[in-house]
Amino acid sequence: MRVSPVNLKILAYTLDVEGFDASEALRQCGLASADALQDDGEWLPATLFDRMMAAAIDTTGDTAFGLVAGKSLALMRYGAITPLVLPTPSLRQLLADLQRFACLSVEHSEIDLQESARGARLRILPVVAQGRSGHFRMEQVATSAAQMLKFVGASSADIRQVDFPYAAPAGQVHRYEATFGPRIAFGRKDCGIEFNPALLDARMPTHDPVAYVAACTRAESALAAMRAGTDVAERVRQCLLQALPEQPTVAKTAAQLGLPERTLRRHLGMLGTSYAALMQECQQLVAERLLAEGRMPLKQIAEALGFLSVHSFHRAFRRWTGVTPSAWREDKKA
Fold first, then answer.
1. Mapping DSSP to helix (H, G, I), strand (E, B) and coil, where does residue 160 land?
2. What are the chain's domains?
């Protein structure tokens, strides 16, 4: 899984806004500064975001810093999505917009509306769910969801229960109650916020039709650019497949497609992939086809993919699939 670099940039900004020095957290992730992270740059592995969140906990010394990050003013820098929040006509519309536009920064929406005869619930689905970083992200997203409810006028009585899938943090429960109200349950099967369903269609007091249309237009434009990148990714695949055994540089492929190199990288990043990942994908695709055909020895297959030796092909194939080329071929024969 990959995430937009804006997620790391916002977390760094959150540390600074909340009175901490983000430089150490960035250093732990191998990043020189937040300025090195381009909002529209190549998407990054979620494991790096995981490290950044762990570093934020270390920097602050606060295991519940997600409760702070979820309502920090730093969130106002969240690209095309944040401008939709205040001018939206209703909570229901806001949640629909989040579903539509979340893919601009993460691979899936982290807030899912569930409606039933019992009422309404916001299920929290963090992009990183395990370990202390998982707790951080879960609490950050849940806090942001609670803020949305408050924007439409929710009182403590309207938030009927907040669930967390882990034990109550020692000495910290009062902070959760200050954020979500008194009805908190730990040790549940997942994270979610049950609330008064009447809030879904209540008019947002800060609704501004002009500002909302403008924000939607910007978000739709960004989404259209991202979807256009889907075609670019397929064109890159075709270029790479035709070029093998040559492994052309990204600059050469960009020129072949008639695009600036930076534009090509940005399109691929918005799709959660990269030039290197597409190169590997094409090599694996051709390798598996040639192995399945069973006519070429491993040395020739390695050469057809641009590898300098059978050993380097063997190592790469095992990294891709978890098995050796010979084992993969024998398995397909069975």
1. strand
2. 2-201 (3.90.1520), 219-333 (1.10.10.60)
Tokens for 329? 């071929």
* CB distance 254 to 261 below 8 Å: yes
Q: Dihedrals φ, ψ of 188, to 5°?
A: -90, 175
Alpha-helix runs per DSSP H in the chain: 6-17, 22-28, 46-60, 65-69, 91-101, 131-151, 173-180, 209-243, 250-257, 261-270, 275-293, 298-304, 310-321, 325-333
Please check whether residue 263 is in contact with residue 254, taking contact to mean a CB–CB distance below 8 angstroms: yes
- DSSP secondary structure letters along 118-141: TEEEEEE--SS-SHHHHHHHHHHH
Give residue-wise pLDDT tens across range 74-92: 887 766 788 888 899 999 9
Q: What is the pLDDT of residues 120-133, one digit of tens each?
A: 999 999 999 888 99
Per this entry, what is the length of the chain?
Answer: 334
